[in-house]
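Posting for a labmate who doesn't have an account.
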Amino acid sequence: MTKTNVELIEKLFKKYYFHGYDKILSIENMKAREINTKNFIIKVLKSGAERCFILKEYQNLKDEKRLKEVLKLLLHCKENGLKVPGVVKTCNNSEYFIHETKLYSCFEFINGKPYNGSLPQLKEAAKALAIMHKIFLKYGKKLVKPNKEMYEFLNAIEMKKIENNLRCKTEFEMKVYRNFPYIKQKIQTIKNWISNGLNVPKQVVHNDYHASNVIFKGDKLVGILDFDSVGISERVRDVAFSCQRFSFYNNGNGEIKNRILTFIKTYTKYNNLTDEELNSIKYFSIDESLRRVCYILRSYFFFNDPSWTVDFDKHIKNIKTAEKYLSLNFV
């Protein structure tokens, strides 16, 4: 992070939040890749004790209405006992502020360690997702839809343009060339499945619940992070994506079947899924990975952005793993 950025963030924090603190000890730009936000860890000293906060910078003023709704949802979650970051209000008692063309909000920092892939933590993650869905359902209010255009399936024109522009000059382009027929086939498979009609419930869901967005102390889940993608969608889509990301996490094939069954069994212990939802987990899991592949390809070929190409192999592998292991009988 440049000196200019540090000075700006320090200036903004002092102006909007620096009440009762002795001094700012450090400011660090979190290195996790984000699409529409930047996150800064700010460590302060108060009465001899250190405290940490996360200052989140949103890139688009058009998101103001959505930000208000998400912050209200977080307050609802907090009031219902969900382990989410508390919203820190400004000196003017506001939940966010605007500086030039950007929005900012501040959150309490949750101490702990990331998901380690253990079975007890897997169960905790599944339980927390089930409880979160119940709390979301009680919220009962609509949310401004997050912008997901980049995640739509590639259309025929886009596919043709990518095929025509594949020069295979880079390792990534060679991977795309080898996998493109498979990607096209899987997109058509999912489209055919969707066209048969789905009768599964929709509600507010997290939309990005995975290993990097949970915090643990020992085997106890103490924090759920990153509600930037929250919105109305199929509940089972959220379950399928989360099951994939937690169950496939750094494990050999021999363990995956048991981990998938454990995740779904734990979830349904705290929140029921219909038979149709259980039978559609495989397809929604493939669907979610395909959409992330489409995001990567659009970013690279149409916006000259290679930032996410490192995730291409992971998502292709997840599609194939879902095909192999998510055909289990959950009903």
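Reply:
Got it, the structure tokens are right above this. Residues 163 and 177 are 8 Å apart (CA to CA).
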